[in-house]
Amino acid sequence: MTTEQSEQAGQGEQAEPPVPVPVEDQVPVADQPPAEAPAETPAPLPPMPEAPPAMVFEPVPPVKKDRRVLRAVLRWTAAVVVFAAVGTSAAYGITRMERTDVPGLATESDGRWEYPTISKPPLPSGSPGPFAEANTAGAHYADLRKLLLPAPKGAKADAALRGEDGWLPTKTFLAEYATKDGRETVGQLLTDYGLRHIAARGWTTPDGTHTRIYLLQFGTAAVADELLSQELVSYDTPQYAARGTETVTTYTGFRPSALVADVTRYSYVETKPYGPEQVRQAYLSAADTIAVVLQSRKGTATAIPFQQTVVLQSQLLD
What one-character DSSP code corresponds to residue 39? Predict the structure, then answer.
């Protein structure tokens, strides 16, 4: 059927729907020769166009400003880590150095002594501390001999104060008073107030300072406090002169931070003119115990070791 006949047929009646051709058998219309065309040698197909070059996506370079910021952040982070490490090392180093080894702090020692590690002795099981509310008598239940301050490093112990089994005869303590009348009066007072026992320790440091500490224990805190405040001391001077002293006055060199809350302290220093030695002394009232601290030294008895000794002994009794 020619093209014209097909068109006429389409006008006269409805054309039948075309039979579907499988997809694999379909040929593009442009490639089908006309129905009436003579057979010819098919013209060679034009060469396929070259495939477009593959698209290569180059990474977008970061903005230079952002790279600078990143580098700056990394540098500062590294710097902080380095400085932190150096700072920690320096701090540790300073804690391990002597004061005279630290630049800017190369000052001479203030004269304080080097004591061993100090700790209070344990209380018997179930016993309260001397200042506990439940301890109405104010008793020290810990062994009094263990409440004595130990000697500092390099000191030579005073064998005369060791006593028998750590308990000192009363007469050895009374020998610290200057006059016979003083010794007899204080001895009688100790008897009247019910002295239980005395523990003592003494030493001499390389600089020649001779230290003696006596702990006198009584039945109750009220008894000990009355004996000390009413009989043994007054505000500006002890009632009974210590051996080797002449003129004595109140010593006020302690800082407020050196106060120990539950311990009452009376401290004195010998004033000029004094003999070959200067004497410093302190009386402490701590619950049922009276502590007497004496330091003497040829020439001048320095203040710092005296303060240090008095405060540490106070803390042990607190």
Answer: P
